[in-house]
Design goal:
The complex is a heterodimer. By secondary structure, chain A is of the alpha/beta class. Chain A has 14 helices and 14 strands. Chain A has 2 domains: 117 residues, Aspartate Aminotransferase, domain 1, CATH 3.90.1150.10; 263 residues, Type I PLP-dependent aspartate aminotransferase-like (Major domain) (Aspartate Aminotransferase, domain 2, 3-Layer(aba) Sandwich). In chain A, strands 2-8-7-6-5-3-4 form a 7-stranded mixed sheet, with helices on both faces. Chain B is α/β, with parallel strands linked by helices. Among the domains of chain B are: 61 residues, no CATH class; 251 residues, 3-Layer(aba) Sandwich (Aspartate Aminotransferase, domain 2). In chain B, helix 12 packs across helix 15. Chain B is globular. Classes of the chains: A alpha/beta, B alpha/beta. At the A-B interface, helix 1, helix 2, helix 3, helix 4 and helix 5 of A face helix 1, helix 2, helix 3, helix 4 and helix 5 of B.
Chain lengths: 459, 518
């Protein structure tokens, strides 16, 4: 076999040299620890090794069987939202130092620690919280972590969750909290789509560890009762967890200002591509109390000083609390999370700055409101289903159209349009309904094209 | 008199301010896409639409920088970060192999980057085929029957496997609540099943063999045993030769066996844990399958199970009906969703490309050279004064890595691994992996030289350790006061445990400083 381009010591001469130094005749002798009878004697049925050119051609042909934004106009969101990714984000997350670093300490990885501290800091300013951890897999997983923190902090084992939660997220959350907390669903107000406070009062008790809300909700509704909910939750000695979509906070009051104890959410909009749902990062934050900080499952970086003036240092906070050291006593997961995306999000937030964040959120509101207006002009469609302020996403009800969302979406696809997510089965009470997402990437022409195609389909 | 600075290396030292200390008011690094006049005119003022109490009163207090300033700041921070591409990178338990550049190019293509996870399946046949084929390849490598690519990392994979073990027992009407693990297994083998609600029993290694006795396991199993979850090979580079016997014992007690093969580098093409009888296993794509570690993520892991357990895998699975790939949600016994959508798909693509570059023969070659590198390193490191290798008599040759001890050096000089790890940075190397806790080996360090390491790098690494050892025995203060050539030194670690001084955000730092000054 030829020497492999990734394996510098694969030549016969160098192997011989190394084997001689070790004092064995063949590399096989080095595998002595694996009992002979356990060894695999066959050869693996895998593709033969290819050249780089062959790999690229093969994958290029395979991936060309996908249809992405070049050929399709999509209005899908529902937990993974299309936004423009500034070139600088890609430049920095392609830097091979960030891309290929891992677990070095501060003296070898100073820049990584600083970039991650800056992520914690800027996210903290966006959401209005003092403590932010290194991020984890996705919004659902950090909602699970938040629930776990609440159980640890309160010693209670019940979690109240809105009926309007993303079903995808609820399924993950159930897995995360199996054996830890019972999940009870809180009704929403049918007209506004916001939380039904009477139902919160009916269900909250001295067993409630936390009440969790999402803002905006899965249906795009902005929950405006944060302060009331917070009061209610705290009167019962429970914790208030708020899950947020971060770009909305360019114009919306951050959860830290309406009483959230723990904040979580999805950071993908902060500079990550859609990637078939494979570039998510869940962020987790809490108030700066010893009790909550001790319950955070993930790494936390603190700013500190060094012996020298005007020089910053960094170090981990309470490292003994996580699974790395506490093993089964931590009763929570940590490990390889999504740090490269945290660095990317830091770059994104520093590019946009305070004004950019506001302007972007305003642009998303204007475009999505324009889309709602255009679609609502089509006979028989109810847009949105709920009477509340919406951010970025909204429901379109097709009950009077005599066609299912699935049929409509199939028809739209023939014109190169991917309609909103069909949520009819997820929320039967809403009827025949799709969840549409409109962001800054959609032009007026795109939105008009959608409206025209819908109109044509429904004729 | 040696100063400690004469090492031929100095780190980039920018004294880079925190980003909040840079820029100035009204600068911007990005122009938001224009909203068409017609839309703006029709919709009007956004604030008017928002309920008054939900209108953000002040914009977030983010820094204000132009694009060139942002780029320079983060380029400087990247220069102060030590990646696999930066130098000798043999951080153990992590399989820090080279991540091929072509894989990055492929994974960053708009053909994958711009795909929405909820697009109709007929528009995503290419990526589904990649996921399906990759799963089949992993079956071939592991001897398992079905794979899920959903877990986002090793801890998550073990968590999913623990939940599958529970679902399996429940389906048999049993509520077994105990998981047995071994102390030299990765901490997630204890932590993840604990998070899933299991009680944990930990077995300790025999002083001579380096792994637990058969009798210890026999004493631990019972009707409460849901399963054995352990790492093999261990981070000591020792293969637990009792594995076949363990599997038999646990099966006889009615439990399942899940083997953590996050670091599979030494067994690729040589050992298939499914053939030996394990019921579940997992691989980390960011370790054995070359995807970059991303400064600690995104990683990706894959869990493999035997046929009898495939019904419990997370939904959706990727299936093929002879003409079309699809996502199968109709699996009533599944443990449910493991995470949102389908996993870290770009990493699956990178690992797929890597497998094509390697082929079956390349995988075997990778494992041979990784083990050759490791044993060469062991041979040479044991020539360094103060270094020893626990269980050397029983296991003179190790697989992918080895866990050494500086106990002797500590006893003789007062210099231990913490000091050596600060000093090694002065030579342009990264601090070494010590050991997961608890430290059953005193003053441990764990280098792992994957197949992508050169012999020259191994020689250089040994040479540096020789130098540091010599310093420890002759001028220990150089080591004690290290680092001397890093970007910074003398970090004040005390805020780590002091809630009045820790500051995880700049806003918290400003508040606490204000309080101090009052």
């Amino acid at each position: 076999m030829q020497t492999h381009p990734y394996i510098p010591n694969s030549g016969p001469e160098i192997k011989k040299e190394m084997l001689e130094a070790i004092g064995v005749k063949s590399a096989e002798e080095l595998f002595v620890d694996i009992p002979e009878k356990l060894r695999f004697k066959g050869s693996l049925r895998l593709p033969h090794c290819s050249s780089e050119l062959e790999v690229r051609r093969h994958l290029d042909a395979l991936l060309s069987r996908n249809e992405a934004s070049g050929t399709l106009l999509s209005f899908l969101g529902a937990g993974c939202w299309p936004h423009y990714v500034p070139a600088v984000c890609e430049e920095i997350n392609s830097r091979s130092e960030f891309l290929t670093a891992y677990a070095g300490d501060v003296y070898s990885d100073l820049g990584r620690y600083q970039a991650l501290f800056e992520f914690q800091s800027m996210l903290g300013d966006l959401i209005g919280m003092d403590v932010v951890s290194l991020p984890w897999y996705d919004w659902a997983s950090v909602a699970g972590d938040a629930a776990r923190m609440a159980v640890v902090a309160t010693g209670r084992h019940e979690l109240l969750v809105p009926r309007t939660i993303s079903p995808e997220r609820l399924s993950v959350l159930r897995g995360y909290s199996e054996g830890l907390a019972d999940i009870k669903l809180i009704k929403n107000n049918c007209e506004s789509g916001q939380l039904n406070l009477e139902d919160v009062e009916a269900q909250i008790s001295s067993d409630t560890a936390a009440v969790y809300i999402e803002n905006p909700t899965y249906h795009g509704v902005v929950e405006a009762q944060g302060e009331e909910i917070s009061r209610l939750v705290h009167n019962h000695g429970a914790l208030f967890i708020v899950g947020v979509e971060p770009l909305s906070l360019g114009v919306l009051t951050p959860p830290g200002e309406y009483g959230a104890d723990i904040v979580c959410g999805e950071g993908q909009p902060l500079g990550m591509h859609l990637s078939f749902g494979g570039s998510l990062l869940g962020f987790l934050a809490c108030r700066d109390t010893e009790q909550l900080v001790s319950a955070v499952p993930h790494r936390l970086i603190t700013l500190t000083t060094t012996g020298e003036k005007d020089q910053w240092g960094f170090t981990y906070v309470l490292p003994q609390r996580t699974m790395f050291a506490a093993r089964e006593k931590a009763r929570s997961l940590t490990g390889t999370g999504t740090a490269l995306w945290a660095i990317t999000a830091a770059v994104y937030m520093s590019l946009l700055g305070p004004q950019g964040m506001r302007e972007l959120a305003e642009a998303i509101v204007q475009k999505s409101y324009y889309a709602m207006k255009r679609i609502s002009e089509i006979d028989g469609l109810k847009v949105p289903v709920f009477d509340s302020f919406h951010f970025q996403e909204f429901t379109v009800n097709f009950d009077s159209a005599r066609k299912t969302v699935r049929d409509i979406n199939e028809a739209l696809l023939k014109s190169g349009i991917v309609g909103g997510k069909d949520i009819t089965a997820e929320f039967p009470e809403l009827g025949n309904t799709g969840l549409y997402c409109v962001t800054e990437i959609h032009s007026k022409t795109d939105i008009d094209r959608l409206a025209a195609a819908l109109e044509e389909t429904l004729q | 008199m040696m100063s400690g600075k004469d090492t031929g290396y100095h780190a980039v030292a920018w004294k880079e301010p925190i980003i909040y200390q840079l820029g100035r008011k009204s600068r911007r690094g990005y122009r938001v896409p224009t909203v068409e006049d017609e839309i703006a005119a029709q919709i009007g003022d956004v604030a008017r639409l928002i309920p008054a109490n939900m209108r953000r009163k002040e914009p977030p207090k983010l820094p204000e920088l132009s694009e060139p300033e942002v780029v320079r700041h983060y380029i400087r921070l990247s220069q102060q970060t030590y990646g696999v591409d930066s130098g000798i990178h043999i951080h153990g338990t992590c399989t820090m192999k080279y991540s091929p550049k072509v894989n990055e190019m492929i994974a960053r293509s708009p053909k994958i980057a711009d795909l929405h996870p909820l697009q109709p399946v007929e528009t995503v046949q290419g990526v589904l085929k990649v996921m399906f084929d990759f799963g089949r390849w992993l079956c071939e490598i592991s001897g398992m029957d079905a794979f899920s690519l959903q877990p986002r990392g090793g801890a998550h994979a073990v968590f999913c496997n623990a939940r599958i073990i529970r679902a399996y027992h429940r389906s048999n009407g049993e509520d077994r609540n105990e998981i047995i693990t071994t102390v030299l297994s990765h901490p997630c083998n204890a932590g993840s099943p604990s998070a899933a609600g299991f009680r944990i029993v930990t077995l300790y290694p025999n002083e001579e063999t380096g792994y637990p006795d058969i009798e210890a396991l026999k004493a631990a199993v019972g009707r409460q045993t849901a399963g054995l979850m352990m790492t093999d090979p261990y981070d000591t580079g020792v293969f637990d030769g009792n594995i076949e016997e363990y599997i038999k014992i646990v099966h006889e007690a009615g439990g399942l066996v899940a083997i953590d093969q996050a670091n599979a580098n030494s067994i690729l093409g040589r050992l298939r844990i499914g053939d030996i009888g394990a019921d579940l296993c997992h691989f980390n794509l960011h370790k054995s399958f070359s995807t970059p570690h991303g400064s600690t993520g995104p990683g990706s892991a894959a869990i493999g199970v035997k046929k009898e357990l495939s019904e419990f895998l997370p939904i959706p699975t990727v299936e093929f009906n002879g003409s079309r790939y699809y996502l199968d949600y109709n699996r009533p016994h599944s443990i449910g969703k493991a995470g949102e959508f389908y996993g870290v798909v770009p990493n699956v693509l990178k690992a797929y490309a890597w497998m094509m570059m390697m082929g079956a023969e390349g995988l075997r070659e990778a494992s041979e050279v990784a083990v050759l590198n490791n044993n060469y390193l062991i041979k040479r490191l044991l020539e360094v004064r103060g270094v020893s290798l626990p269980w050397r008599d029983a296991h003179p040759f190790r697989l992918q890595e080895a866990r050494f001890s500086l106990e002797k050096m500590m006893e003789e000089t007062g210099i231990g691994i913490a000091d050596v790890n600060r000093r090694i940075v002065d030579f342009g190397l990264q601090d070494m992996e010590t050991s997961h806790e608890p430290w059953i080996i005193p003053e441990p360090f764990t280098p792992e030289p994957p197949e992508t390491t050169t012999k020259e790098d191994l020689d250089r690494f040994v040479e540096v350790l020789h130098t540091i050892s010599q310093e420890a025995y002759t001028s220990p203060s150089i080591v004690k006061t290290a680092p001397h050539n890093a970007a910074i030194s003398n970090i004040d670690r005390s805020p780590s445990t002091d809630s009045n001084r820790w500051a995880m955000t700049w806003r918290a730092y400003l508040k606490k400083r204000r309080n101090d000054q009052q």
